Amino acid sequence: MYRYVCKTMLRRLFLSKKVSYQARLFSGNFRYLEVLNNENNVAIVTMKRAPVNTLNSELLSEISSVLTNLDETKCSGMVLTSFSDKVFSSGLDFNEMYESRPATIRTLVSTILEVIIKLYGSPFPTVAVITGHAPSGGCVLSLCCEYRIMVQNFQIGLNVVKLGYSTPLSIVQLMVNTIGHRNAELALTSGRLFTTNEALRVGLIDEIAKDRASAFDKANDFLNQFKVIPPIARHFTKQSMRRALLQDVSINGKIYVEDFVSLISRPKVQELIAAYMANMKNKKKNSN
Ligand SMILES: CC/C=C\CC/C=C/CC(=O)SCCNC(=O)CCNC(=O)[C@H](O)C(C)(C)COP(=O)(O)OP(=O)(O)OC[C@H]1O[C@@H](n2cnc3c(N)ncnc32)[C@H](O)[C@@H]1OP(=O)(O)O
């Protein structure tokens, strides 16, 4: 029954006339992810950690496993998206950063770094279909993809500075590679969240879609262009473009993780995280 509902929903939601569709459930069993392949061997990876796809270690390690599997099975493309029509991902889970043991924070941060390396360096083409807000870690996931399509009227960006910690170097570099040095500096030092329109203007996203279905049409168009490109040539070109960041993270990753763990553990940062979480709860209470 569950399979049937998934297939039917996907057929309705994702598929346009341009892609004939034959869903098959991915071999892995995941708690927070749904992975479906279409007949073009494109994997549609949907994050489904309700309510807002907060990135905890478990969701991140599921994404990491899927990426390994897609690499091994030579998929021809991947679309990363959210089950929600309001939030793509709300970023790293505060519950694993607030009053947590260093080991817990370390696991969280090293798992996101592992995902960054695999997603940013993946041999297959990747698209983020951003169906809602994408702050912080949510923005990072989309930045690791090659192409970003975002639905109207949401916000995206890296607001970590507002939480009292600096943006890790590898993440700064991701942003610089996408929107250029000047725009990245302005955005990161102010923790700016961009509306969908602003994000397009600055180059943080590549296209705007009016809804999920049209975002998927655009994703298919992006992926289809690679049908005539030899995959190996495409892969090596992508690697050349991305080598510097990937090398940096594989050499200095452990240092970045430890720096981030010690930043997060600072009493001042812990206070700010507590205040931020309380503020989210208050906003919710006042809006009800
Ligand atoms: C070396 C490399 C390392 C790291 C690189 C990347 C670093 C990333 C740092 C981060 O990602 S820190 C997380 C930053 N995230 C945010 O600032 C976003 C916070 N959330 C929001 O602004 C909103 O939730 C939203 C705009 C995404 C969605 O708003 P709305 O639809 O109104 O939902 P609620 O705010 O009511 O949230 C529902 C529920 O979820 C809880 N929640 C939301 N975000 C988080 C989170 N990041 N961690 C834990 N919990 C979160 C929120 O408190 C609500 O909980 P209830 O119990 O009240 O239902």
Automatic annotation (TrEMBL):
GO molecular function: delta(3)-delta(2)-enoyl-CoA isomerase activity
Biological processes per GO annotation: fatty acid beta-oxidation
Location in or out of the cell: Mitochondrion matrix
UniProt entry tagged with the keyword Lipid metabolism: yes
GO terms under cellular component: mitochondrial matrix
Pathway in which this enzyme or protein is active: Lipid metabolism; fatty acid beta-oxidation
InterPro entries: ClpP/crotonase-like_dom_sf, Enoyl-CoA_hydra/iso
Keyword Ribonucleoprotein: no
Gene3D superfamilies given in the database record: 2-enoyl-CoA Hydratase, Chain A, domain 1 (3.90.226.10), 6.10.250.170
Keywords: Acetylation, Fatty acid metabolism, Isomerase, Lipid metabolism, Mitochondrion, Transit peptide
Domain of life: Eukaryota
Catalytic activity: (3Z)-decenoyl-CoA = (2E)-decenoyl-CoA; (3Z)-dodecenoyl-CoA = (2E)-dodecenoyl-CoA; (2E)-tetradecenoyl-CoA = (3Z)-tetradecenoyl-CoA; (3Z)-octenoyl-CoA = (2E)-octenoyl-CoA
Task of the protein: Key enzyme of fatty acid beta-oxidation. Able to isomerize both 3-cis (3Z) and 3-trans (3E) double bonds into the 2-trans (2E) form in a range of enoyl-CoA species, with a preference for (3Z)-enoyl-CoAs over (3E)-enoyl-CoAs. The catalytic efficiency of this enzyme is not affected by the fatty acyl chain length.
Subunit comment: Homotrimer.
Name of the molecule in the record: Enoyl-CoA delta isomerase 1, mitochondrial
Record organism: Photinus pyralis (Common eastern firefly)
